[in-house]
Design a protein that fits this description.
single chain, alpha/beta, Rossmann fold, eight-stranded mixed β-sheet
Length: 295
């Protein structure tokens, strides 16, 4: 199992060359990374899950070591959904369990909604499903309406926009990539977790900053319909970090209430990068959940 970007396989889907790796055999479990990340973020999951399953990791388009995004281009989720579906077919994993973190968790959820026959189960680590409630960026009327329905969630969204997304966007617009990454990192990880990131992990963030910039400066997340989510019958495990920002916990709580076949587990001693912060706990939770799914 590769713990670097060397020695990876590659395949071409929808015109993009994707780097990937696998270990083990049996039912396929595909890991979908989030923003400011690549295949390396799953270094402690793929070997562990590969002891019982065919564990597959890949770098999404524009993530290292794949070709970088062009300057000024947007990076929207729908092409990543199409990539994942095509990738599954290309590697002979037409029906698989999906494990997705953050932005990658949103991609995995959209994949399950679009092609439910291809997804055996979902493990979602704090997907940022903001568009269940507001546009991204949110319109003033949407925030006012949400303040009436769910003031706690509305204030969490306002705070995230004011302290993380907004400063990161302004920093990227003025060309200060480092300030943008730190601002957004504080918003999704918290100050303590950000300060605890290793130099190696910070480098992974920097390696993938161009796609991160494109997402923050782009058109926003795709719309997500409440009824679409409610109709999803796929068994789902939602994992939330004990020390994650309130907004991410609130979004997962809402998703838990909507998905008819979902469990929610809090990962102790962990923030948003819970699969890195407390890998053993996350791995055990994934293995236990997968073991309960029908073959």
């Amino acid at each position: 199992m590769a713990t670097s970007l060397e020695g990876l396989k590659s395949t071409t889907v929808n015109g993009a060359v994707l780097a990937w790796c696998e270990t083990g055999s049996g039912q396929p479990v595909i890991f979908v990374h989030g923003s400011a990340s690549d295949i390396r973020t799953w270094d402690r999951q793929i070997p562990a899950i590969g002891e019982s399953y065919r564990a597959v990791g890949y770098s999404r388009r524009y993530a290292r070591p794949n070709e970088d995004i062009e300057a000024g281009a947007d990076d929207q989720m729908p092409p990543h959904v199409d990539d994942l579906i095509a990738f599954m077919q290309d590697i002979g994993a037409e029906s698989a369990h999906l494990v997705g973190h953050s932005w990658g968790g949103f991609v995995a959820l959209l994949t399950a909604i679009k092609t439910p026959q291809s997804v055996r189960s979902l493990v979602l680590l704090e997907p940022p499903i903001l568009t269940l409630f507001v546009s991204t960026p949110p319109k003033p009327g949407e925030i006012l309406s949400l303040l009436i329905r769910d003031p706690g969630l509305a204030f969490a969204i306002i705070r995230f926009g004011a302290t993380a997304f907004g400063p990161a966007k302004k920093a990227y617009q003025r060309g200060d990539d480092e300030a943008a990454m730190l601002a957004f990192g504080r918003g999704v990880l918290g100050n303590i977790a950000l300060e605890c990131l290793s130099a190696e992990r910070l480098q992974q963030v920097r390696d993938n900053k161009n796609a991160d910039r494109a997402q923050i400066l782009g058109a926003g997340f795709p719309a997500l319909d409440v009824d679409q989510v409610r109709r999803a019958q796929i068994p789902t495990l939602l994992l939330v970090g004990e020390r994650s920002p309130k907004l991410l916990r609130k979004l997962s709580d809402r998703l838990h209430r909507l998905l008819p076949s979902s469990d929610l587990i809090e990962v102790p001693d962990a923030s948003h990068l819970m699969h890195e912060d407390n890998a053993g706990y996350v791995n055990d939770a994934i293995v236990e959940f997968l073991g309960r799914q029908a073959t």
